């Protein structure tokens, strides 16, 4: 079973996370409603099981909570993927969300990188600072050691734009992590 369990505690956050790449229960609580909504969409569209409890210094803002959840989720993805053999490795998806169109391409490569493009017309949605979308995905990419390209080139509603990006990431990740009959998909033989 491709699973991981991570507990990370700092002076700013305390996060417990259980992840299954192959589905399972979903129970998500970060204290940031919109972020919970996005993580739930990620799980539903990515076919992931996720149990997540995050307690953070929300009296400051959502920054530490969102970024640290990205760190822990990235660490869990890395652990659950193991040596990355027997998976498709690459995935991509376009997801429309009303007037917005999200795109994601990723490589489960062992080489962390993020290219992010999205200018959000509203600075916040609920208690979520929209600029934290990039910080979250940077933390995921760096800690999961994946190459991640995310883009929402247009839209009028920040909620729709961010949701399109989360769902595009979910579908791309689901495809890339799909189990195959082969070994490591690399001419080098290792990732």
UniProtKB/TrEMBL annotation:
GO terms for cellular component: cytoplasm. Its EC number is 4.2.1.19. One of its GO terms (molecular function) is imidazoleglycerol-phosphate dehydratase activity. It is found in: Cytoplasm. InterPro entries: IGPD_sf (IPR038494), ImidazoleglycerolP_deHydtase (IPR000807), ImidazoleglycerP_deHydtase_CS (IPR020565), Ribosomal_Su5_D2-typ_SF (IPR020568). It catalyses: D-erythro-1-(imidazol-4-yl)glycerol 3-phosphate = 3-(imidazol-4-yl)-2-oxopropyl phosphate + H2O. It comes from the Bacteria. Pathway: Amino-acid biosynthesis; L-histidine biosynthesis; L-histidine from 5-phospho-alpha-D-ribose 1-diphosphate: step 6/9. The keyword Translocase does not apply. Signal peptide: none annotated. Belongs to the imidazoleglycerol-phosphate dehydratase family. HAMAP family: HisB. This is Imidazoleglycerol-phosphate dehydratase. The gene is hisB.
